[in-house]
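Aim 2, interim progress. The first record below pairs a target sequence with its structure tokens.
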Amino acid sequence: MSDLIILDDEDASGSDIEPSAVDNAYLDETLTYEVPRTSIEPAGNDSSVVATESTRRSRRSARPVKRGRDGVLKKTPTVPSPKRVNVDLNDTSPENDSGCIICLEPFENYGKHRISSLKCGHVFGESCIYKWLEQSGMSKCPQCNSVAKKREIRTIFCSKLMALDVAERNKAVESFEQEKSHRMRLESEVKDLKVKNSLLSAEIEVLKNRLAQEQTQLRQSTEITMFRNKLYRSFSQLALCSKGGSRRIVFDPVQKVLVTSQAMDFLSMNRGHGLRKISALNFKSSKMIKCHKDTVRTIAAYDSKVLSGGSDKKLSLTCLKSDVVIQEWSSPDAMNIWACEFNKKNPNLLYVGCQNGSLLTYDCRVLTAPVSIFTSHESRVPVTSLNFVSFESSNSFNAEGILIGGFDGCKFYELNQSNVDPVVHVLGNELKGNCTSLSYDVKSNHILASFRPSLHVKNVRHCLSRLQSLNFGSEQIKATKVHEFYGGSSMKQLTRSCVYSAPTGKNDQLFVSAFDQSSEQLITWESFDGSKFQTTKMKDFICLDLCPFEINNEHFFAALSDSALKILKFS
């Protein structure tokens, strides 16, 4: 039901009128009311229908009339005529029902046909619904068929009631709410899916990284397994001198020769000590060069030249091309020479470490004496090793100077351009002790320091560290420990260890080799995990110096004793 139109009776004027006058006035009025579509068809284009005389009489007779005890009619208030209500009869939609569905008459707000409702909420004319419920078996709502009783009838007081049909609107609102709820649910699901997607993406990245690491480790493990199938094996052995006297060995890649220090043979006319050249192509001795009268303690090679220092307190520079000593110097104050090194950036400058801890600087253009002498007031112990370090040789180290190993530990002397005394840097507590050897790998910027047993450490200790400079030109230079390797409990002779690139071809993989005098073994460790790679028994052979080298894409390892040379090949 869409519209309920009430015939509104106006209030009585208050004057007393005879019934006849009421009837006449009622009859004189032209009453127009809404007629249900099912009973009256519209005539022409008129939008209203005028009730007939019989209709008027039936309505007039239906009006209540009061009589007294004597049967005489009482005066009743004047009942004004209902207002004219227009109904659009052309509208045939079912929503245009505006009256009682029982009698199909319009509602009134006064009288017996006034608006009443049941408990279920449906509205009817009061007289119609009473009659409906009084009928036998009719105790249900005529519209929804729900149980209804007469005591549940309620009168609705209103002057005008219009019921709008909101079914379509309610359906649209309900559909909108459903769509809105569905959309909100979808948005919530999208958000959840986005979160899950981000979490899964992060997990995928983690798994990818883990897979890459596993693949890298597997590849490295495979390479190491394949690599460990190769070992340093004995390749050649060469007797040097029965008299002994060999102490150091170096390799010159330009001339492709090994150079060892040794004593001259008894059969030689020249007595003393010198350098022996050994071809790295066929490992045969080529020539002996005399350069010192006493034992040669140290040698260094660079650009087809060999610098040597001996117990005769002299420094000699020998040319390997011509096999001639081209220059000699005497150490000042007859200081014993223990170590020497070339300046790789300026080969004219030579560095010498002495027994009293002094650092001498020679210039090949000055023939008489060293150009500078630097003596540390804190250290008066022998210098056992010298290694020149240039910041051009390694991108991770921004300083230039000399690594010095001595009986009080390892230090770095930072050089400067003003020819003043170098700045001394102590490399750390891990590199303190009786250092017998200091090796430096240019490619990886790692150093290997070997120490004799002490009160705190009962075994020979080999410390692998990485050289670092925190700021260029500053004093913040240190060595960070990578691994420590331990040998036997004794070191009677000063033996040298070495650090070098592994034959795998990778710059980040290093080998550490050292001779253990207690067990008479040559031990090689891996810097990757600090494990032992190879142990080679060296019976009755005390290695005083070690020299790894490469020639024609083949890797060799030279071990020098005081009277013989052993060549190991990586195969």
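The second target in this work package is listed in the same format:
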Amino acid sequence: GINAEYGINSTFLRCLWDLYAPVVAEYLSETAVRCVTPAVNYHRVYNLSVSNNASTYSAPIPFTYNPVPSPNITSYFPNKATVFGGGEVIINATDVLPNPELNCYFAPTYVVAAKLLAITNITMNGSMTNATSNSTVKQNVTQLYTISCPIPPNSAAQTIKLYFGSNRVNYSRPVSFEYRIPAPIARYASPNHGFLEGGTEVLITGERFFNTPGLMCKFGNILVNATLVPNRNESLLTCVSPPATSPGTVSLYVTNDNKNFSYPLEFTYYVPPPKVVNIIPRSDTVLGGTVITAFGKQFLSTYGLVCKFGVAEPVPAKIVETDPETGEGTTITCVAPRYLYLTDANFRVSNDGLFYSEPPFHFKYQMIVPSITSIDPSSDLVYGGTDLTVHGTNFFPLAFNCLFNNTVVTAGIVVGTEFKKAICSVPRLEEAENIQNPVKIQFSVWNNQTVPSNNVSFTYSPVPVPKISSISPATGLVYGGVLVVITGKDFVPNDKLSCRFSNGNDTQEMPATMVEFSNNTKLTCTTPPADRKSIAFVSVSNNGKNFSNPLNYTYLVPVPTISSVNPNSASILGGTVCDRVWKGFCFIFIVALPIYC
């Protein structure tokens, strides 16, 4: 507001501050006008004049421009971001001069434009009311400005100073803003275990691994340096496990800055295996039972201290001598287990049942010689096929055989008999059909076809001649196909078992099938066709050569029945052909006689 004389209410009423462009004045009265101060470059005293015609100005009076006040930051959020930037920081401040030059200064690099979001009136007692453009600011009210600034990237993980300014000159006091490297993502660790002494190189796969001084792995609470694998797009690194004091699983982390860590993986520490320098003795039979002494170091008195012989289950070990300085075992003993396999074994020792000593020692398992005490039965027919039970000792289950003279038959050890009982099937004797008298052979067993056992006698009996007592049915039609049941004794199930049907002029042999194997007393066979009504002699053979006593089987011819004659009349002189419709099971050719009507 300017008080003056001779003011004229005209459209050319102006105010002028030195050489800055004239500003349109508002006429209030002949003695008062109002002008809006223009923006100037410097805070100092300027000459202010007024004109009624925008040309001739009054004598100047002094007008002082004061410095722009520095904003005061009252709060801000967030106070940190990743080095990649992004997002925005929200600042609440007072003493703000709203203008297009509002900015945030992320010292010492970035100045970014700020955006005014809201203005809120705050009274001295802390109550708040919304500001409006027409409201009058009371002396006890402070205006709070809410501003947003985009967060720029930063070249390093560090804490910088953040300023807010109403222009590029007047800034607030700085606040701290932290740039962080983002936490990495660890997905897999290989291997995910190692020994207590450390030194295991671990390969970790993941994302956001950065080549920074803070790139490290953390095993439990122990940090170790990590190294990026080249040309893998920051997705693969290696680090070496540090020593641990006790076995168990620890959390494994990755960090780029020793502040932000990945979600944990798991890494398991195991007891280191002992070192074996010698074992005595280095062989045993497959039955095991021999005490083995192993010499070395780092034998630990743990529940997992075991000896392992090849693929057999581990056996417990016992420390018998220790190093007086370290307290670690230097000599252990364990008992060689049964080794039911066809190979020798590698001998190793472990402190935890997981990791074993290297290199292994060769341990020789020697095959044992079996012994026979009895066999049951001690005889069979020449066709064989009977299950033979063998009693004895030292039977080896994985390669146990029976020997009938020179014929090798695979045998099976009976479970739960401590390798003292086995079963094998009696093989067929060569040219069994031609054997007429008992044949005695030598029977033995062996393990893995090495040294055979003692011999016992086994007798092959010739095939008996059957005896038959009945046949049912004992009659049938001449075209055969009747299934007959023959009862008798000494029937032997085999592929040579057959029935013979003989009627003097013709002899036919038919395969037979056993129907009662328990006592070999019944069999069945199918009758062959016959050329006429007759009586056939039926006998049975076990070998196709020696036949039983015969029984009679009667072949019958069916009696035809006439159901119609066409024509059914003729001349007494004869000569008419009659078509007969026969009713029966077969057609028999006969001489036709004339039919008299």
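DSSP finds no helices and 54 strands in the chain. This observation will shape the mutagenesis plan for the next reporting period.
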